[in-house]
Predict the 3D structure of the following.
Amino acid sequence: MSQAASIETYLYQEDLYSLPPRVLVIVSDPWEKLTEAEQTTLTKMITALRLNIATVQIITRTAFTMADLAAYAPTKVIALGATLQGSNRLYESFTQDGLPVVVADALPRLDDLKKKNLWLALRQMFGV
């Protein structure tokens, strides 16, 4: 028994850390497949929101539900080219299942008018 007690003393002695929730950015194409201009657009957009590209979580999906995102525990969701199932709202900030969400077209499909509408929705979401 003393050997069992000794083993228990040393098991799971590492510190556990709670990572802070992040803004979740969902893109329809993998980062590697985005052009340099599209990556720059996304980086500038995130920087304009007073965030850093390293502090947001970027995932790839073509469609999603809010239940799909539960494991990521996001504070806000920005979907670019990914469809929120059960919603057809684009270019507006709205709340879905308690989370602020903005859904827009994929980065290659954003023209100047769509970028402006996206920026207005993001400003509303982030209060900038």
In short: Strands lie at 23-27, 57-60, 63-64, 76-80, 83-84, 93-96, 99-104. The radius of gyration is 19 Å. DSSP finds three helices and seven strands in the chain. The chain has a mean pLDDT of 86.
